[in-house]
TrEMBL record:
It holds the Pfam family PTR2. GO terms for molecular function: transmembrane transporter activity. Its main location: membrane. One of its GO terms (cellular component) is membrane. This is Protein NRT1/ PTR FAMILY 5.9. Residues 1-25 form the signal peptide. The gene is LOC107959826. GO terms for biological process: transmembrane transport. The chain crosses the membrane at residues 87-106, 112-131, 167-186, 192-213, 297-319, 339-359, 379-400, 430-449, 461-487, 507-525. The keyword Cytoplasm does not apply. It comes from the Eukaryota. Keywords: Membrane, Phosphoprotein, Signal, Transmembrane, Transmembrane helix, Transport.
């Protein structure tokens, strides 16, 4: 493998790609974190419309990898995908920056201008949809054991994989933190033109750095018979269905140990004299049977995937309603400085950065002693703990919002929406969400990476991001349904533009209840879930 230097057990190429991932997060968060303020203050959208727009855009952005990743796995190499998608990404960032420049001189019209902004955001989504999963999969390819499988019995390899995901998330959070703090301040203080231009130039710089690392990257050769997994899975489903309809096929899974393990299938394709190498159905029946089994493995993930959606819904709140809450609270530090509400989102990433070392140095050793497990807690237990903490965060958010509304009612004669309640009362919910991130988000990355077939790693990361994608759409749908229901009969909507009369506290309680139900079903599904390691070990016995 290329790249000789090592830091914390990772190669130079891994470290470089982690830095590049952090720069991409800086660019994205520089646009996304304060977008709801841009939509309400510049585009003149209502609070609910802006929140639904941000949620829908984030959902579209996170769902696109599900469409792009199979193509990247089947038809393109990851390096070329990263370069091509980064060009689209930069184009989208430039288009968003141009809207701010134009609207500085001419206020946006009712139809055409918001439409141009929407299509600019879609360009960012399209670029990121291919860029992020490909970059992370390319980073995982840099590990010393290129064909490392979850069934590997080497604890060092497993620990190294966990180390990679933790440092990757550390880099991503560091970039996000800088984007949240710096860009929110610049946008609120110096304007949106500079606030959107800086993320564009940051992304251009990251692409330049990426191309400079060509000599130290490890490029995985695409020699296995499973080199086009998505295309082959569709082909084998089609051919098998045809044969079954005609009654001309009977599939018996081989019992031979060498035919069961996916590692052996990758390293030694069954294309010898016995089966031929022409790629025909009869010659590769056993190989295509494995591909069909891989498709079944992806379907097995759906119950767990679905139960994580409410966790993703909760994570839409900091960029939308948490930010709008902060705008109505006391934000002064000293006489002249006011905290931009969006910067409180940095508390999430800051808590991740500060707590991640404690997770490794304190929590894991304690749980290793208690559970007698090498990893301390399993990946699925790790995700469950994070889901529980997110529920506690929403309960705290509901209590704080109730307090804010009580103070508002006592000062209802005042015209200003600002209440004498410090914005720092929102910090506990932000910090708890950050800690839950350490458990659930890192666990999700490792879980989906482990549970998908080897040659569909990009698809694995796409499954992880799609949780937050569909969660964003689900959040927007919930807002629409709740708004329609609560505003019927002339009543005040829970998402009223008048923050003195909203019902966000009820909304937060509803999210806490729905997340509790999701956690209960998640625990039930985990009890009956069989991992790939257990399946492969069972087949070998």
């Amino acid at each position: 493998m290329s790249g000789g230097g090592r830091v914390q057990g990772l190669s130079r190429s891994c470290i470089l790609l982690i830095v590049i991932a952090g720069m991409e997060r800086f660019a994205f968060k520089g646009v996304a974190s304060n977008l709801v303020t841009y939509l309400t203050d510049v585009v003149q959208m209502s609070n609910s419309s802006a929140a639904k727009t941000v949620n829908s855009w984030c959902g579209f952005t996170s769902m696109l990898p599900l469409l792009v990743a199979p193509l990247a796995d089947s038809f393109w190499d990851r390096y070329s995908t990263i370069l091509t998608s980064s060009f689209v990404y930069v184009l989208g960032l430039g288009a968003v920056a141009s809207t701010a420049t134009i609207w500085t001189w001419s206020p946006p019209s009712n139809k055409s201008s918001p439409a141009f902004l929407f299509w600019s955001l879609c360009l960012i989504s399209l670029g990121q949809g291919a860029y992020n999963p490909s970059l992370q999969a390319f980073g995982a390819d840099q590990l010393d054991h290129d064909e490392e499988l979850p069934s590997s019995k080497d604890d060092k390899n497993s620990n190294k994989k966990s180390l990679f995901f933790q440092w990757w998330y550390f880099g991503v959070c560091s970039g996000s933190l800088l984007g949240l703090i710096l860009m929110s301040y610049i946008q609120d203080t110096f304007g949106w033109v500079l606030g959107f231009a800086i993320p564009m130039f940051a992304m251009i710089t990251s692409v330049a750095i990426f191309t400079c690392g060509n000599r130290i990257y490890a490029y995985k050769p695409d020699k296995s018979i499973d080199s086009k997994p998505f295309q082959n899975i569709l082909q084998v489903i089609k051919v098998t269905a045809s044969k079954l309809v005609n009654g001309r096929i009977r599939i018996n899974l081989p019992d031979d140990k060498s035919d069961v393990g996916e590692l052996e299938l990758q390293e030694k394709p069954l294309c010898d004299q016995k089966f031929g190498s022409n790629g025909g159905f009869d010659g590769n029946l056993r190989n295509k049977t494995h591909l069909l089994e891989n498709a079944k493995i992806v379907l097995r993930l759906l119950p767990i995937w679905a139960m994580l959606l409410m966790f993703a819904v909760i994570f839409q709140q900091p960029a939308t309603f948490f930010t709008k809450q902060g705008m109505t609270m006391k934000r002064n530090i000293g006489r002249n400085f006011k905290i931009p509400p969006a910067t409180l989102q940095s508390a999430i990433t800051l808590s991740i950065i500060l707590m991640m070392p404690l997770y490794d140095k304190v929590l894991i050793p304690i749980t290793q002693i208690v559970t007698r497990n090498q990893k301390g807690i399993t990946v699925m237990q790790r995700m469950g703990v994070g889901m529980f903490l997110s529920i506690i965060a929403m309960i705290i958010a509901a209590v704080v919002e109730t307090k804010r509304l009580e103070i508002n009612r006592k000062t209802s004669s005042l015209e200003s929406e600002t209440v004498e309640l410090s914005i720092f009362w929102l910090l506990p919910q932000y910090v708890l969400l950050g800690i839950s991130d350490i458990f659930t988000v890192v666990g999700m990355q490792e879980f989906f990476y482990n549970e998908v077939p080897v040659r569909m790693r990009t698809m694995g990361f796409a499954l992880y991001t799609s949780v937050f994608g569909l969660g964003s759409f689900l959040s927007a749908l919930m807002i629409s349904v709740i708004e329609a229901f609560t505003s019927s009969g002339g009543r005040q909507s829970w998402f009223s533009d008048d923050m003195r009369e909203d019902g966000l506290d009820k909304y937060y309680w509803l999210l806490a209840l729905a997340s509790t139900l999701s956690l209960l079903f998640y625990a039930i599904f985990c009890k009956f879930y069989t991992t790939r390691i257990e399946l492969e070990n069972g087949n070998r016995k």
